[in-house]
Structure to design on (440 residues):
């Protein structure tokens, strides 16, 4: 398949390209060609775009052979995309909304602004936890798995905190985003800049979808892989 | 209205039960996306992914769920209607609100009717004509206290109602307003002047 066709099929995949560092202007090159030129593992790239494109896509077994490094690196890039690009964009739009001289509606918008900022900090904490706690953990598991050896300490850590716990804790952050959407759709004080509010809503809907897709990648690619290794280690090395 | 396909989660350990129910569901002729869950730990992610639907779960399955999973099921109430399969007789303590209960000796026709009734409720075609649901006076009072940062227990004591009633009010508030988090409810209460910013702890 040609790379251009990918985008015509689903334009939401554009944002994935940027995360992989693929620039536009790839002419009629195939997915494989573009990936090779950019030093990207084409199979992995396909896995990611398929997971985004099909809600119920389940990666086939052999495709789970990617190193965790590849997966985590991608997840980190997505995090960066949210925190450095998407969230500030929405925050900027919201600040325009509340930037009305000291009137009553202005006060309401500042409330909404504050609500979003709280959401933002929550998301930041959530992401930070993943990067500082979960990723080091999965690397530890992989390392032990590849070495085919696990000491007591590693076994204890797996028993204490497994990747399933991570999957479970994984999300209540999105509730706030949903609330924000409803507040903007249903309960905004009038008068309000309609065009601006609509842009904000578009961004929020997109962000929400994207975060959900992101979570799906974690649940379908990262989690099963780590779970498999955890199980193998526990089966072989726990007393 | 948009008729999306309906998500149905069947949560039970028994292959026999899952396959049997799936067969009956196919006879509804509706476009259903049926998903099997055999492991309690998978239930949360199953509920998370889909938007709206039906959760058909057996009592024995619920007994194997930890409190966190139960809490999650309960939190999904405004997206998922619950049908409980009464496969074991003893009472469970979870107090999940089920829309319908399937008994052991229900005939195929009865099961079919029960499920269909729930599905109708879920995707009521006249939904768009439904009048806007206003929150009641009592719900407003509860909402006010929630927004002021009180816990369910404190609210129950303040209003002289049971904890269970507070929880029911809160569910209804969330279902009507479409706002789930306390922070979101607070913003709503402030915007609608139910409270002022000085009221917040």
């Amino acid at each position: 398949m040609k790379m251009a066709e990918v985008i015509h099929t689903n334009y939401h995949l554009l944002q994935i390209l940027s995360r992989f560092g693929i620039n536009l202007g790839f002419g009629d090159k195939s997915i494989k060609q573009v990936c090779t030129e950019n030093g990207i593992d084409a199979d992995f790239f396909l896995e990611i775009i398929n997971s985004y494109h099909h809600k119920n896509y389940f990666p086939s077994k052999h495709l789970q052979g990617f190193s965790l490094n590849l997966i985590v690196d991608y997840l980190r890039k997505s995090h960066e995309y949210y925190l450095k690009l998407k969230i500030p964009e929405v925050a900027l739009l919201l600040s325009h909304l509340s930037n009305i001289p000291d009137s009553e509606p202005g006060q309401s918008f500042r409330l909404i602004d504050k609500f979003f900022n709280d959401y933002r900090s929550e998301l930041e904490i959530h992401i930070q936890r993943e990067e500082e706690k979960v990723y080091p953990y999965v690397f530890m598991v992989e390392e032990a798995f590849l070495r085919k050896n696990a000491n007591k300490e590693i076994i204890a850590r797996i028993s204490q905190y497994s990747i399933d716990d991570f999957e479970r804790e994984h999300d209540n952050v999105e509730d706030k985003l949903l609330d924000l959407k409803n507040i903007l759709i249903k309960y905004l004080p009038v008068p309000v800049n309609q065009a601006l509010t609509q842009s904000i809503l578009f961004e929020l809907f997109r962000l929400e979808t994207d975060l959900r897709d992101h979570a799906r990648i974690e649940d379908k690619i990262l989690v099963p892989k780590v779970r498999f290794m955890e199980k193998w280690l526990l089966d072989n090395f726990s007393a | 209205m948009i008729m999306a396909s309906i998500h149905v989660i069947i949560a039970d350990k028994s292959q026999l039960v899952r396959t049997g129910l799936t067969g009956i569901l196919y006879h509804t002729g509706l476009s259903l996306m049926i998903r099997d869950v055999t492991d309690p730990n998978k239930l949360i992610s199953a509920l998370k992914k889909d938007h709206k639907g039906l959760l058909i779960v057996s009592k024995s399955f619920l007994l194997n769920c930890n409190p966190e999973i139960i809490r999650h099921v309960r939190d999904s109430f405004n997206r998922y209607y619950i049908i409980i399969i009464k496969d074991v007789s003893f009472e469970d303590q979870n107090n999940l609100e089920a829309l319908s209960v399937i008994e052991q000796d229900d005939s195929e026709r009865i099961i079919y009717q029960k499920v269909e009734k729930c599905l109708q409720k879920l995707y009521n075609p006249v939904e768009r004509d439904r009048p806007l649901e206003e929150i009641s006076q009592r719900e407003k009072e509860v909402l006010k206290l929630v927004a002021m940062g009180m816990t369910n227990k404190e609210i129950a004591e303040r209003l002289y109602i049971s904890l269970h009633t507070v929880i029911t009010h809160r569910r209804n508030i969330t279902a009507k307003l479409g706002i789930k988090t306390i922070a979101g409810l607070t913003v709503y209460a402030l915007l609608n002047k139910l409270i002022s910013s000085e009221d917040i702890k």
Observations:
- The beta strands of chain B are 6-11, 32-37, 53-58, 80-86, 100-103.
- The longest strand of chain B covers residues 80-86.
- The mean pLDDT of chain B is 83.
